[in-house]
UniProtKB/TrEMBL annotation:
GO CC annotations on file: cytoplasm
Name the record gives this protein: FAD-binding oxidoreductase
Natural source organism: Candidatus Amunia macphersoniae
Highest rank taxon of the organism: Bacteria
Organism classification: Bacteria, Bacillati, Candidatus Dormiibacterota, Candidatus Dormibacteria, Candidatus Aeolococcales
Domain FAD dependent oxidoreductase: 20-354
């Protein structure tokens, strides 16, 4: 599969019978949680059914974008001005935390900004409104022409955005805590209790825990069916190195297509889920011919002649309102969740993990828009 890094080099060993905190999921959220808990000298372990970064954290395009999947104007209309502003600030904080982390990790990090490209008049008008609102709220945004992008009516440049190799980031965060990570250890059940929680693993073993944090994003409902995070497939491809194609990560057609070029010349193209919404829901991580043909067409549209070297898919976690779900699962005492990033995990996950640890260890209140307790209102 695309992007898988070298194994952590874990030697076989027995699972502990107990831990203060058990983290389920070895993506960006899980390894960040493990690192933060380790800094607080908490006895925490991480269990991952495959290997580190094998899920969506290792299968995404590496975009570090501010905000939610919707542009800022649509976010303001959906959530209100105050929440849209707070979410944007939260993701800027997330980017700052990521930048601090990669000072000691070689993860291909660049902060050259991003382009959101409008391909029709409606999207162009929305981007104009987004730029106005962003500037009014004190954020950087620059409207421009097509900036060399074919068919783009208008572009919005966000100089605060960036890009990264997500697999190298996750492995870089994990390596210092590899002795607390148990790979190829599928969790089959998470049970809440009055005095402790229990994590059951494949083969009949279990770990008693003071608390459990389920950080499996798109796979959350397999362990916690009551948590409304839907599995949604995203598909991508990568090419052999090509001559200069694009200078920034590009997000186009309301975010339904996206591409970037790494410094080594490799072009990454993803999206087109809107061509088959119903088909792109579920846990099947197999690329499909119809979407891959769309990706090929986009590649040709960009003028890229380099051969396609990899095709893949990953399972994202979508919430009902497009905002993450963090906190104690309603009805539970000791089971927490951290996920539901709705396609923007790289923009949310590190700061969401920090918020989760703040609640878990220090009883810090979560922002209402982030707190999972809001789902009661969503389902009424």
């Amino acid at each position: 599969m695309w992007g898988i890094a070298a194994p952590l080099g874990q030697s076989p060993r027995a699972l502990p019978h107990r831990a203060d905190v058990v983290i389920v999921g070895g993506g960006i959220t899980g390894v960040t949680l493990l690192g933060l808990l380790g800094q607080r000298h908490v006895d925490a372990v991480l269990v991952e059914r495959d290997q580190i970064a094998a899920g969506a954290s290792g299968r995404n395009a590496g975009f570090l974008l501010a905000g939610v999947a919707e542009n800022y104007a649509r976010a303001v209309h959906i959530y209100g001005r105050d929440v849209a502003r707070a979410v944007w600030e939260f993701t800027l904080e997330n980017h700052a935390l990521t930048a601090a982390a990669v000072e000691r990790i070689d993860a291909g990090y660049q902060r050259r900004g991003s382009l959101t490209a409008a391909l029709d008049a409606s999207e162009a008008a929305c981007l104009e409104e987004a730029a106005t609102l962003l500037v009014e709220d004190g954020f950087a945004a620059e409207l421009g022409g097509g900036r060399g992008l074919r068919d783009a009516r208008l572009t919005l440049f966000n100089p605060a955005d960036g890009e990264i190799d997500p697999v190298r980031l996750v492995h870089g965060l994990a390596v210092a805590h590899s002795d607390r990570i148990f790979q190829h250890c599928p969790v089959v059940a998470v049970e809440d209790g009055h005095n402790s929680a229990n994590v059951g693993v494949d083969g009949g073993g279990s770990i008693e825990a003071g608390a459990v944090v389920v950080a499996t994003n798109g796979w959350t409902a397999q362990l916690l069916p009551a948590v409304p995070i839907r599995p949604v497939r995203a598909q991508m491809l990568a090419t052999a190195p090509a001559a200069g194609v694009v200078s920034w990560p590009v997000y186009a057609e309301w975010g339904h297509r996206y591409w970037r070029q790494r410094d080594d010349g490799v072009v990454l193209v993803g999206g087109f889920r809107n061509r088959a919404f119903a088909d792109e829901v579920g846990y099947d991580g197999t690329p499909t011919a119809p979407i891959q043909r769309c990706l090929d067409s986009q590649l040709s549209h960009l003028g890229v002649e380099a051969a396609v070297t990899h095709r893949w898919a990953g399972i994202m976690g979508f919430s009902d309102d497009g905002l993450p779900l963090v906190g104690i699962v309603p009805g539970c005492r000791r089971v927490h969740v951290c996920g539901g990033y709705t396609g923007h995990g790289m923009g949310f996950a590190i700061n969401a993990a920090r918020a989760s640890v703040g609640q878990l260890l220090d009883s810090q209140a979560l922002p209402p828009w982030l707190d999972i307790t809001r789902v009661a209102a969503l389902t009424q």
